């Protein structure tokens, strides 16, 4: 059921949030729902008729009102019926260009070459498909920040990333020299990165090392997968070291050190051990943590925080070590967990000495 696109017939313009250039061309297709398709969701039928559009793009078009059901916008979950007429106006995504936004940032360190920011959970580092505003890059530009340009135009200054729902320290390069030096340090693994994580289940050992290769999950493309060497196509080696700070009932509070920087590395490595990071439903964590007969309300983010980083100043070589205190929402979650199981909060605070 491939699309039979007509020639370009629309001249509506859509202004991009990242560029001053309007989108002025779109391709339009319409089709009538047959009996076999009756009762199916609108978004799935559109995806089947338009295989050249990703499911993400189909949903974007629906959200933008560019998919019409019998002449009207409809939700992707709407159940269609035989004889319904669906029209799809498939505009190309506008070219993105990062722009300034007035967003407060917590700056941990700054010199002529480097800026270190304590990124909150819920903030993406840079723009991507379906995510055009509210990023760390937007905020950096909003403070009039000079940034390196030695990389993707959407990622000025960015030499490494944190997942959206992970908080903590992000290093930013202010110039191309610093960008090159920091990028090389990450490649050579001379930058020390320490995280605090709460995982489900009780880890019996006091510490350990995870060396499982990581690749894109072939079944669920939004996830990564971790396996022994040779078990995954296009996999890359990855190493995660950990030690237990304390155990709180059926959870383990950990200090984690990354020796490689693969996508979702900590999350996928502990999920592979069947100890997913608390709050990380993508990798199998419970939405609500169950402790005995009681249940904690959802955390609303992953319990994963980039707490410390150590790096050499790009020009002088001086070693700089930074700490980002554990966020208040994570401290409150630990307090609620301790109260629920009758644990002593002072014991947990003592285990977290240096991270609070």
Protein model, in words:
- This protein is α+β, with helices and mostly antiparallel strands and 356 residues long.
- It folds into three domains: 1-95, Roll (Structural Genomics Hypothetical 15.5 Kd Protein In mrcA-pckA Intergenic Region, Chain A), CATH 3.10.290; 96-188, Pseudouridine synthase, CATH 3.30.2350.10; 189-356, Pseudouridine synthase, CATH 3.30.2350.10.
- It is built from seven helices and 17 strands.
- The protein has helices at 42-49, 55-63, 136-142, 176-188, 265-272, 328-341, 345-351; strands spanning 26-32, 67-69, 72-73, 85-91, 107-110, 114-119, 167-173, 192-200, 207-210, 213-216, 224-227, 240-248, 251-258, 290-291, 294-295, 304-312, 319-323.
- The strands form four sheets. Strands 5, 6, 7, 8, 9, 12, 13, 16 and 17 form a nine-stranded mixed beta sheet that branches.
- Mean pLDDT is 88; it is low at 1-25.
H-E order: EHHEEEEEHEHEEEEEEHEEEEHH
Largest sheet: 9 strands, mixed
Percentage beta strand: 25-35%
CATH homologous superfamily assignment of the largest domain: Pseudouridine synthase
């Amino acid at each position: 059921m491939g699309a039979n696109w007509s020639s370009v017939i629309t001249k509506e313009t859509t202004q991009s949030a990242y560029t001053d250039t309007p989108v002025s061309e779109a391709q339009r297709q319409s089709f009538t729902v047959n009996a076999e398709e009756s009762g199916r969701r609108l978004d799935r039928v559109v995806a089947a008729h338009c295989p050249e559009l990703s499911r993400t793009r189909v949903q974007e078009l629906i959200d933008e009102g560019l998919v019409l059901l019998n002449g009207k916008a409809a939700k992707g979950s709407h159940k269609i019926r035989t004889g319904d007429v669906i029209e799809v106006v498939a505009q190309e995504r506008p070219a993105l260009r990062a722009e300034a936004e007035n967003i407060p940032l917590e700056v941990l360190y700054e010199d002529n070459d480097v800026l270190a920011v304590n990124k909150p959970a819920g903030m993406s580092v840079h723009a991507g498909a379906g995510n055009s505003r509210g990023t760390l890059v937007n905020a950096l530009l909003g403070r009039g920040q000079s940034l390196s340009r030695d990389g993707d135009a959407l990622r000025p200054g960015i030499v490494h990333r944190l997942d959206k729902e992970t908080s903590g320290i992000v290093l930013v390069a202010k110039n191309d020299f610093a960008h090159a030096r920091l990028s090389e340090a990450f490649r050579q693994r001379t930058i020390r990165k320490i995280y605090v994580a709460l995982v489900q289940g009780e880890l019996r050992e006091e510490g350990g090392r995870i060396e499982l290769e990581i690749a894109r999950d072939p079944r669920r493309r939004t996830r990564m997968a971790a396996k022994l060497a040779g078990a995954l196509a296009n996999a890359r080696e990855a190493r995660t070291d950990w030690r237990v700070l304390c155990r709180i009932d059926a959870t383990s509070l950990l200090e984690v050190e990354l020796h490689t920087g693969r996508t979702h590395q900590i999350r996928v490595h502990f999920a592979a051990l069947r100890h997913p990071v608390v709050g990380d439903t993508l990798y199998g964590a419970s939405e609500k943590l169950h402790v005995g007969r009681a249940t904690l309300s959802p955390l609303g983010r992953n319990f994963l925080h980039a707490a410390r980083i150590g790096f050499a100043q790009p020009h002088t070589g001086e070693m700089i070590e930074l700490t980002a205190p554990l966020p208040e929402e994570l401290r409150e979650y630990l307090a609620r967990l301790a109260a629920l199981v009758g644990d002593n909060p002072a014991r947990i605070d003592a285990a977290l000495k240096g991270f609070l």
